[in-house]
Design goal:
flat; mainly alpha; 150 residues
Length: 150
């Protein structure tokens, strides 16, 4: 008698359909990436109308890289926030990861947009939109960047 042997568990109702859906989404994203038509920064972080993509391939690739880094930060934030101790001790810092995630999503969207001014004007993070849309950018001193708030 093998005590280490366990019976196979039946999948939870809907689990196999969910996995099949995830597999289809990943396959489509990989196909879009291979074809160069992957649309970045369109997840739940952003709202509003989708923007037309720029024809500049380097700008689109830069936006994809920013979105790639954003997804890694999102995964890290999820991992850390699932730890009750870390969540209790560092909740403000973990919220900062979320804000950085949103900021990167918006920046990627602006970089990949054919009309960057229109994309910047549609940003829902008010402080980022104000910084990007301010006038007199060339006349501002280099130390005019906003402070980091903890």
């Amino acid at each position: 008698m093998n005590l280490l042997r366990t019976a196979a568990k039946a999948p939870v109702d809907g689990a196999s359909e969910h996995q099949a859906r995830v597999d289809r989404i990943i396959a489509q994203a990989r196909a879009d990436m291979a074809a160069g038509t992957l649309q970045v920064a369109r997840g739940p972080v952003l709202t509003g109308q989708p923007v037309a993509l720029t024809e500049d391939l380097l700008d689109r690739r830069l936006a994809e890289e920013i979105d790639y880094a954003r997804r890694h930060l999102d995964t890290l934030g999820d991992l850390l926030s699932n730890n009750g101790y870390l969540l209790h001790k560092h909740s403000r810092e973990l919220q900062s990861l979320d804000k950085i995630n949103q900021l990167l999503a918006h920046v990627a969207r602006v970089i990949s947009a054919a009309n960057r001014r229109q994309a910047a004007a549609s940003i829902t993070l008010e402080d980022l939109r104000a910084r990007l849309m301010r006038t007199g950018l060339a006349e501002e001193p280099a130390d005019s960047m906003p402070p980091i708030v903890h």
